[in-house]
Write a structure and sequence with these properties.
Blueprint: H1 11-45, H2 54-83, H3 85-107
Helix pairs in contact: 1-2, 1-3
Length: about 120
């Protein structure tokens, strides 16, 4: 990858990028859902008289802001990833393929080469 954001991926790489994007999207949504469940559970589990106190009110507002900003940032991130999917995942796939090839090349070296502690 030469760093060109307008470069399109071939069909095979595009399919791999779509799988990676789908996995990242579901991971982000799952973590966001866990945040929502955790904060809703905390709201239900805490005695409601606590939220009438000044500290409780501050915590309630902070939790609402936390949900608002995290939810909006996750959806903005997912939208950005969709727009720049080829560039973002193209770089990842390029480096994954380079590392896979390097490991394959290392596995083909004779065993005596690996005995040298200074060998790459």
């Amino acid at each position: 990858m030469d760093g060109n954001k307008n470069q399109k991926l071939g069909p095979a790489l595009a399919a791999r990028a779509e799988v990676m994007h789908s996995r990242d999207r579901w991971s982000a949504l799952l973590i966001l859902a866990a945040l929502w469940v955790t904060l809703i559970y905390t709201y239900v589990a805490v005695p409601h008289g606590f939220f009438a106190t000044p500290v409780g009110l501050v915590l309630l507002i902070a939790a609402a802001l936390l949900l608002l900003f995290n939810t909006s940032s996750v959806f903005a991130m997912l939208r950005h990833y969709r727009e720049d999917r080829d560039y973002i995942y193209g770089q990842d796939l390029h480096h994954l393929d380079q590392n896979r090839q390097r490991l394959h090349d290392l596995s083909l070296r004779p065993a005596h080469v690996d005995t040298d502690p200074g060998a790459p």
